[in-house]
């Protein structure tokens, strides 16, 4: 009886008003009997008045924070339930936001407060994370998780995707941003050659043979409500949207591959088409009930189709369940009686030519814009049934405070309580809350847990929990990188400690040993790593290193010119008619250098190349003057340093 009174709140208010009228009639009859019987009844009347005053005490209004909500339909539904909108700083009962929630926001919540998102739900709402979770489950259960297109995450899987495209040259691919929405950034292509290694996103094999209605491609927007995470409870709304493309479908080819009105079914894309139709029966957006009637008319098994759709949705949510459960337990340690979150997801489903559902994406904040009458009809009823299921009156602040005081009193007076008794009390509260959900579910149907199919999903929960902690190639690589970084930091700390110790005065015999240890430590390539990290800082130029560098440059120029590489490049470019005027000028200068170098006597060398001093001795005054003049024109940067003229003369 207590549960029924907590569920049917509006009915109780009507019963209270009826009790008011009945109490007035009883008082009138009692006053008549008082006159006849001469009994002292003023005290009884006074008690009755006191009881009626206590019974007529108003309930506290439920408050809702809609600061970060941009949809008017949610405000209308909240006003329909009599909820009062408050700011973010007040003690609200329900917080509705269109954005994903942070851990700080969750930890600040109190036991009587509720929010419309689960922490960790981005595991299936981001396209890249959804692909990774489904691919992980596909490797574990190849036959059960084959309900989504073959997907790669860029840039990690770029090489694998390119290899697949070379083998399957007839396949078409669709590229999507990893966190986009409303059809923005989607590209359909036949080749993956133009993808850069730094591009982020996902790549899917395009489903080229969907189920068509009157020649048009369509997808389903299925609204899914998660009311609890531990234990998991999933509801699916019976009504939804069927979104059509606005151009008749043809398999992608070189001509129509860029026609987004043919290949994409997003409302945000097709509403800009000139052929967009707003009719409810034959328009570009229709109800799921219309689709069911249409499939029944074609003698398809609608119940079997929706059974497969429910199965796909449940498996998708289970793929992220370990993260959901862990995040919820970490963010809401005090919400041990009532669920602190609820989540209304918009899941996009595509039916292939055999009416098998293929999941496209999961939206954690589906659009609640009401541009058409159909949107108002579907979304208003959806949100009304959702607010009724949340039963926000059950999460009253004073009631929760009384429960906390009762728990403290019982814990102090009853001594040591076992864990089983505490869990049984929580389970009783959950049972009452879930019964209230079932009574007020409206157009929602419970798909999990279900007595007929609950045991079929147990293996997915177990594998998901184990895979959260198992080693993978990526986890092992991250661990190796962390170990290397830790060793480097320890080595650097030892080096700094050695420097600090060396600054202290030491006995004469210990100075030589300490300098040797420091020199050995400095030979470790830590300084190179630090220089690499600070490559934009100016460094001191060492004269010996600069001299060696210029000497190597001179040797390289000598080898290139002595082997005739410049002539070969020049005549090859001239033969293919790609010689530019600046190339002609450069070759003319080179010819002058070659003619000047003919009068130079070649010196003998002992090591792989002539020394610069030996070459300068064999050059005549006239030849050296010409060579230096040409070199200044070709390499002006070298002529600024007089001390390196010997290196220039060698070329």
UniProtKB/TrEMBL annotation:
Residues 1-55 are annotated as: Disordered. One of its GO terms (cellular component) is ciliary basal body. The keyword Ligase applies. Pfam families: TTL. InterPro entries: TTL/TTLL_fam. One of its GO terms (molecular function) is tubulin binding. One of its GO terms (biological process) is microtubule cytoskeleton organization. Residues 28-37 have a biased composition (Low complexity). Keywords: ATP-binding, Ligase, Nucleotide-binding. This is Tubulin polyglutamylase ttll6. It comes from Psylliodes chrysocephalus.
């Amino acid at each position: 009886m207590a549960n029924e009174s907590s569920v049917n709140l509006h009915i109780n208010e009507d019963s209270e008003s009826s009790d008011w009228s009945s109490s007035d009639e009883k008082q009138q009859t009692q006053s008549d009997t008082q006159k006849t019987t001469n009994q002292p009844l003023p005290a009884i009347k006074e008690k009755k008045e006191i009881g009626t005053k206590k019974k007529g005490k108003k309930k506290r209004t439920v408050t809702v924070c809609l600061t970060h909500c941009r949809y008017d339909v949610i405000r209308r539904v909240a006003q329909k339930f009599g909820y009062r909108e408050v700011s973010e700083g007040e003690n609200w009962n329900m917080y509705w936001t269109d954005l994903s929630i942070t851990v700080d926001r969750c930890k600040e919540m109190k036991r009587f407060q509720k929010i419309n998102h689960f922490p960790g739900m981005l595991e299936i709402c981001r396209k890249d994370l959804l692909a990774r979770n489904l691919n992980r489950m596909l490797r574990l259960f190849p036959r059960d998780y084959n309900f989504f297109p073959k997907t790669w995450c860029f840039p990690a899987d770029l090489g694998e995707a390119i290899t697949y495209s070379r083998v399957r040259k007839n396949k078409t691919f669709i590229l999507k941003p990893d966190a986009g929405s409303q059809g923005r950034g989607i590209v359909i292509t036949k080749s993956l050659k133009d993808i850069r290694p730094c591009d982020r996103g996902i790549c899917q094999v395009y489903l080229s043979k969907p189920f068509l209605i009157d020649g048009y491609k369509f997808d389903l927007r299925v609204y899914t409500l998660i009311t609890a995470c531990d234990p998991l409870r999933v509801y699916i709304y019976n009504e939804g949207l069927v979104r059509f493309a606005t151009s008749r479908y043809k398999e992608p080819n070189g001509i129509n591959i860029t026609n987004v009105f043919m290949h994409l079914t997003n409302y945000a894309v097709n509403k800009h088409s000139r052929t967009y139709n707003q009719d409810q029966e034959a328009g570009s957006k229709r109800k799921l009930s219309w689709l069911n009637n249409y499939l029944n008319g074609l003698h398809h098994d609608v119940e079997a189709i929706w059974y497969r759709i429910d199965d796909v949705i449940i498996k998708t949510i289970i793929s992220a369940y370990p993260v959901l459960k862990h995040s919820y337990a970490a963010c809401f340690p005090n919400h041990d009686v009532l669920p602190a979150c609820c989540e209304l997801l918009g899941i996009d489903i595509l039916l292939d030519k055999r009416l098998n559902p293929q999941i496209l994406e999961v939206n954690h904040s589906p659009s609640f814009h009401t541009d058409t009458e159909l949107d108002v009809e579907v979304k208003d009823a959806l949100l009304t049934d959702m607010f009724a299921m949340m039963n926000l009156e059950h999460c009253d602040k004073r009631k929760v405070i009384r429960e906390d005081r009762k728990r403290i009193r019982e814990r102090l007076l009853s001594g040591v309580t076992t864990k089983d008794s505490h869990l049984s009390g929580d389970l009783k509260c959950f049972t009452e809350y879930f019964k209230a959900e079932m009574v007020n579910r409206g157009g929602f149907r419970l798909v999990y847990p279900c007595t007929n199919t609950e045991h079929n999903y147990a293996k997915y929960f177990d594998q998901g929990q184990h895979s959260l902690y198992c080693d993978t190639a990526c986890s092992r690589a991250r661990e190796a990188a962390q170990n290397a970084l830790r060793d480097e930091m320890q080595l650097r700390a030892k080096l700094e400690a050695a420097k600090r110790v060396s600054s202290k005065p030491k006995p004469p015999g210990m100075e030589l040993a300490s300098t040797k240890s420091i020199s050995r430590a400095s030979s470790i390539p830590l300084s190179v790593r630090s220089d690499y990290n600070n490559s934009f800082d100016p460094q001191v130029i060492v004269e010996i290193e600069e001299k060696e560098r210029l000497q190597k440059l001179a040797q390289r120029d000598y080898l290139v010119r002595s082997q005739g590489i410049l002539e070969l490049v020049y005549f090859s470019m001239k033969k293919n008619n790609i010689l530019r005027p600046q190339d002609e000028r450069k070759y003319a200068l080179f010819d002058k250098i070659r003619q000047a170098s003919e009068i130079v006597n070649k010196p003998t060398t002992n090591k792989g190349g002539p020394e610069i001093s030996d070459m300068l001795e064999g050059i005549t005054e006239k030849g050296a003057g010409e060579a230096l003049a040409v070199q200044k024109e070709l390499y002006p940067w070298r002529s600024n340093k007089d001390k390196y003229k010997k290196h220039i003369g060698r070329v």
